[in-house]
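Cross-check.
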Amino acid sequence: VIEVLGNKDEANVDLMSIVKSHGLRENFSKKVKKEAVFIEKDLDLSKVKNREDFRDLFTVTIDGRDSKDFDDAISIEKDNGDYILYVHIADVSHYVKEKSEIDKEAYKRGNSTYLYNLVIPMLPEELSNGICSLNPDKNRLSLSLKMKINDMGKVVDYKIYKAIISSNYRLIYDDVNDYIDGNKKVYDDEVLLEKLDLFNELYKILKKKREKRGSIDFNFTESQIDVNSQGEVLNISLFERGSANKMIEEFMLISNETIASLFAFMDFPSIYRIHEKPKEEKVESFKNILNTLGYNIKEKELHPKDFQDILKQISGKDDESLINMLMLRTMRKAKYTNYTDMHFGLATKYYTHFTAPIRRYPDLIVHRLVKDFVDNKLENINQTSLENKLSKFAEHLSITERNSEECERDVEDLYKCKYMKKFIGEKFEGIISSITDFGIFVESIRLSSSLISS
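Predicted model, tokenized:
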């Protein structure tokens, strides 16, 4: 016996058994905690040197209502017909030094894991919710990407700064959605409303450009599971992604592409996020099913735009959910590499992860390389040695990501089963979405969430 988790009826003991089964590290060691104690609580401006001061820029964060770690903030201006978009990312690498105890632990974890009523963070709270988090009206260090984007959505110029910022507002997705989608005047600040209108304009331009090149947007129903601190499931509902959620995603995508292209064009080693094209036999199987369902797919080889066209064809139809699921299973899993390759799902040549260093270690690696670029230190780095190190990093971080995803899926299944216990004996109408050797997957129409039964 390594550890006793508790009585089977104790709060969250079932959750912790899943966490343990995936080998996730929920507690920080004494060495990590000791380092975290000495991290500054507030930014000492007297120690800030060689930083661009962006505190006069009108800056906001937009996150979920329950979010506590804010690793990205945005600003916008208009320059004639062009948009000047600033994406400010928390400068985690300033506080997390290579080979420190916090850094070594963050690398082992690879990423944060979100389990509804429990978060297993990559970094100690002093960093993730403290000095690194871009809280409103607080001076914070950032890596800021300034992009000049034309009315066709093309980045015509960009520059990266080591900066200092102060966010004006901590905005919530639901409120911004009410303003953008519902035309409700949620805010009184006219400057804020003007900026939100500009953000929305640019979002639509970037979205249109991405759709034009064939980026695939799956239309899945996601579950919103409300769980209290005792692990009791209060409600399951549909999670709605409004325009504000999609807008922030769009700004993060263009930032990640821009940073990836920087290192790709220099032919300098970096971490990339790739998504290889599907295997031929899987595509052939998918096409056969589509043809059986009455969709005439004649193309021999399917490109991202072809998959996008299929999603448009099935939009709103009875078999939309089924075909979305089948298409996803046709795809390969995205992964981290130390070499460039296309991202099939996004239909882009170069892609990386740069925008979430509080919760993803690959972003932290990219930040360190970006800062070396800004400081003109890349020429001092042995590229062969770096490439070998990045190859090892990429493999490890792809594994930790998959492990975390599997744990999140298992916890989702657990909470859905716990919720359904109260409905034993009742009848539900549902759609069988998959049959396996251990049972069937049923999507319940009434509850609008994926449930599993054997």
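The first strand starts at residue 52 and ends at 53. The mean pLDDT is 92. Passed to J.P. for a second look.
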